[in-house]
Amino acid sequence: MLNIIVLASGRGSNLAAIQEAIEKGELPGQIRAVISNKKEAVALAFAAAKGIPALWVNPKEADGRLGYERRLLKAVEEIGSDCLVLAGYMLMLGSEFIQGYGKPILNIHPALLPAFPGGAAQKDALAYGVKYSGCTVHFVDEGMDTGPIIAQTPVPVLDDDDEEALTARILAEEHKLYAKVLSWLAQGKISRQGRKVTVSGGGSSL
Ligand code: GAR
Q1: Does 14 contact ligand 1 (Cβ within 6 A)?
Q2: What digits encode the pLDDT tens for the residues 6-35?
Q3: Cα 165 to middle of ligand 1, angstroms
Q4: Active site residue 109
Q5: Tens digit of pLDDT for each residue in 129-179?
Q6: 11 CB less than 6 Å from ligand 1?
Q7: Which of 17, 46, 47, 109 is catalytic?
Q8: Which of 15, 48, 140, 197 is the most buried (most CB within 10 A)?
Q9: Are 23 and 50 in contact (CB under 8 A)?
Q10: Domains detected in the chain
């Protein structure tokens, strides 16, 4: 049983997909809490409606980024978890937090990393003219979307795509990929040596 804490800044559709996978019995785990840096995050409202503890940690009340991350780490440690799952969490995490937590931290990104890191991945993919983009689940390190890649799903870019259409097509795959990767993690199937991540019994792409 994987004890998950989700960090989210916004809409929370990946959070909802993970919770749905748990409820359907596809992911042997539980979401112990949802934490956001944004008071108005829909993800917090979703958690509250599901009876999952929902916590706002206000970056503005803390003493800079380090102070905020220390508060965040304290909150995470008090709750207890096996992993942190970033689902539309739009702040980077520093090394003190990552080392201090000491357990897997996962993120999902709406592009085939290392292409198009950052906050405008779908727009950047369209502007570049790639024929395929997709989504990536990776371990979090100190860089911007640079951690070891666990799994990716390619998604075609169509000639008449705009940002909205491409975003929606990728998001549908994100929802499947994140739940799948977390079920691998729950089953102890993921191992990591340096940058190379392997999934026993196959995996890495859907
Ligand atoms: C998702 O597309 C996720 O991949 C992206 O934010 C969206 C959150 O949606 N994350 C990043 O761009 C991180 N660099 P959601 O709140 O509906 O899950």
Answers
A1: yes
A2: 999 999 999 999 999 999 999 999 999 999
A3: 15
A4: yes
A5: 999 999 999 999 999 999 999 999 999 999 999 999 999 999 999 999 999
A6: yes
A7: 109
A8: 15
A9: no
A10: 1-103 (3.40.50.170), 108-206 (3.40.50.170)
